[in-house]
Amino acid sequence: MIKRILYIFNLLFVLLLLGVYVGMRVSPEFIPELSLLSYIYPLLLVVNVLFCLFWLFFKWKYIFVPLAVILIGSSYTPRFIGFSSQASNQEQEKTLSIMTFNVGHFQYKAEEDKTIAIANKDSILSLIKASSADIVCLQEYASVKKSKTCFHYIMTEVLGYEHFFAPTNSSNYVRGSVIYSKYPISRSGALFPLKKNFYSKTYADVVVENQTLRIYNVHLDSYRLSEQEKNEVNKIKDAEMISEETGKSIFAKLIETNKEQAIEVRELKSILDQTTENYLLVGDFNATPYSYTYQVLQRDLKDCFVEKASGFSGTYNDLLPKFRIDYIFASQSIDFLSYEQNVYNYSDHNPVFARFELK
């Protein structure tokens, strides 16, 4: 009797896991509730694996259904756990590197102490300098221009990123999804300049030894969770319940953002499909690797994490569990050589760094 009850619970988790697979392919505009399952895919996968181990020893005939569903989605597992080896020490023909980082206006944990924002800026500049990345893409970024101690001046005049594009670039400051490059930029712009949206999407054509490499730096729609809502979610790790009112607010925001992202990603994909240059697509996508947004992009692109990462990865630090929502994608003609993502206490996001070969 107990085994049958457990099997019923197992079937429930099997159906939820199948719901994740369906939600990747069906736009949140049509069945918005399915998009919420993408946030608990790791949990659903682990629970079904544990059930399989249990049935193996206590009722082996029950193993077939959960095992079949796990195998159906086996191609999604590398999005959760990296199994690839890093590049060898052998010199490549032309190795380049790129970093993407949502710096969160440098305000991480600086609400009551403005000196922390200054420390965040200095730490991020030191990180960029140590990385020696050829191209740096920043989101939620703003800097004044005239002060010799400001972020932009140090990037362009000290660290060698003299070429850049910012969607907002006045005589006094730069702002938005900004692209900095050590190589010349022949062409640049905002993808949707008429859209009044702070989450800007930009591009720049970087010229490397007579070859053009297009860089897309994007920031997709955010969930806009309040600090109180984030704190409520993080109470889960202490086995505390979220209030009903807060839960409804969070679910409504998640669903609305997933709908908006479905529109954004289709607009973005239409531009990518027309791009003839080798290109990299990087930024803060605010979407998990098991979402409709990721699925639309991943069909024709390489995900650096899947190609070259090992172990688990989460790029967003402010919620439990730590989701991977910052990506480096590439067109098929680009070969990734390495992937690096470490935890730093300078922003609610972690920087993502990749080396690649431009054929």
For the residues shown, what is the average pLDDT? 89
Q: So, CATH architecture of the largest domain? A: 4-Layer Sandwich
Q: How much is the radius of gyration in Å?
A: 22 Å
Helix content: 25-40%
- Corresponding CATH superfamily of the largest domain: Endonuclease/exonuclease/phosphatase
Highest-level CATH class of the largest domain: Alpha Beta
* Beta content: 25-35%
Please work out how many helical segments DSSP would assign. 10
- Low-pLDDT parts are none
The figure for the number of domains is 2
What is the third-level CATH name, the topology of the largest domain? Answer: Deoxyribonuclease I, Chain A
Order of helices and strands: HHHHEEHEHEEEEEEHHEHEHEEEE
Find the structural class using helix and strand composition.
alpha+beta
**How many β strands by DSSP?**
15
Largest sheet: 7 strands, mixed
Give a verbal description of the structure.
Helices cover 36% and strands 25% of the residues. It is globular and about 75 Å long. The protein is α+β, with helices and mostly antiparallel strands. Strands 2, 3, 4, 5, 6, 14 and 15 form a seven-stranded mixed sheet that branches. The protein has a six-stranded mixed sheet with strand order 7-8-9-10-13-11. The protein has helices spanning 2-25, 32-35, 41-58, 64-72, 114-131, 151-158, 227-234, 244-272, 292-298, 304-308, and strands at residues 81-83, 95-102, 135-144, 163-165, 168-169, 173-181, 185-190, 201-208, 211-219, 278-284, 302-303, 310-312, 326-330, 334-341, 352-358. The chain folds into two domains: 2-72; 95-358, 4-Layer Sandwich (Deoxyribonuclease I, Chain A), CATH 3.60.10. Helix 3 (41-58) runs antiparallel to helix 4 (64-72) and helix 8 (244-272) runs parallel beside helix 9 (292-298). A hairpin with a 3-residue loop joins strand 5 and strand 6 (173-181). The model has no long low-confidence stretch (mean pLDDT 89). The longest helix is centred in the last third of the chain and has 29 residues, at 244-272.
